[in-house]
Design a protein that fits this description.
By secondary structure, this protein is of the alpha/beta class. The chain is built from 6 helices and 8 strands, in the order βαβααβαβαβαβββ. It has a 6-stranded parallel β-sheet, sandwiched between helices. The radius of gyration is 14 Å and the shape is globular.
C-alpha cells in the first residue's frame, strides 16, 4: 500500500490477515495499553496472523502519551530485534494509535504500522484523522510526524 487505507471489516481475523499481508515485514509487533491488553488480547491472540508477534505493553490514558513511554516503545522494538522492515500493529484508543504511529514513523527512519482503533474517537481522530504524535512540555500533540507508507486502519474492535 502506498497510501492510507481504511478497512471497515466484518471479520477482524480475515481483514487483519489481509492488511498484514499487504505490508511485507520481517518481524511483527503489537502495541497495547492496559485496557486493550485486558479486553482485546484475549480476542486477537488466537488469530494465526499474530501468533508470532512480539507484544509491547504500555500504561493507559493520555498521561502516558509522552517521551518516556515513547522511549520505552523504541527500546522494546530495538531489544526485540525490530528492523527497518518490521511492522507495528497499534491496538487501542487514540493514545495508543497516536503514540504507536509516532513511534513507528520515527523508529529506524520509519517502519510500517497498522492501527486497530478500539474507540469511536480513535477511529475518526487518531487513526483516520492523520495525526501521530506525543504530548510534550505540557502541550497536547506538541511533537508529531507524518504517516509512513503502509498503513491500514482496521475499524472493528469498538468497545462499548
Amino acid at each position: 500500500m502506498s497510501k492510507q487505507e481504511v478497512i471497515i471489516c466484518h471479520d477482524l481475523d480475515e481483514n487483519l490477515n489481509k492488511a498484514i499481508a499487504q505490508c511485507p515485514h520481517d518481524k511483527l509487533f503489537v502495541l497495547v495499553d492496559e485496557h486493550t491488553r485486558e479486553l482485546c488480547i484475549p480476542v486477537v491472540s488466537e488469530f494465526d496472523c499474530i501468533k508470532n508477534a512480539h507484544f509491547i505493553y504500555i500504561g493507559a490514558e493520555d498521561v502516558h502519551k509522552n517521551l518516556e513511554t515513547l522511549a520505552y516503545v523504541w527500546k522494546e522494538l530495538g531489544d526485540k530485534g525490530a528492523s527497518r522492515h518490521s511492522l507495528l500493529i497499534n491496538l487501542g484508543g487514540g493514545m495508543v494509535t497516536d503514540l504507536g504511529g509516532f513511534a513507528a514513523s520515527t523508529f529506524k527512519r520509519g517502519i510500517q504500522y497498522i492501527n486497530i482503533p478500539t474507540t469511536l474517537l480513535a477511529m475518526v481522530d487518531a487513526s483516520v484523522g492523520g495525526k501521530t504524535g506525543i504530548n510534550f512540555n505540557g502541550l497536547k500533540n506538541e511533537i508529531y510526524a507524518v504517516r509512513g507508507n503502509c498503513e491500514a486502519e482496521v475499524d472493528q474492535m469498538v468497545l462499548e
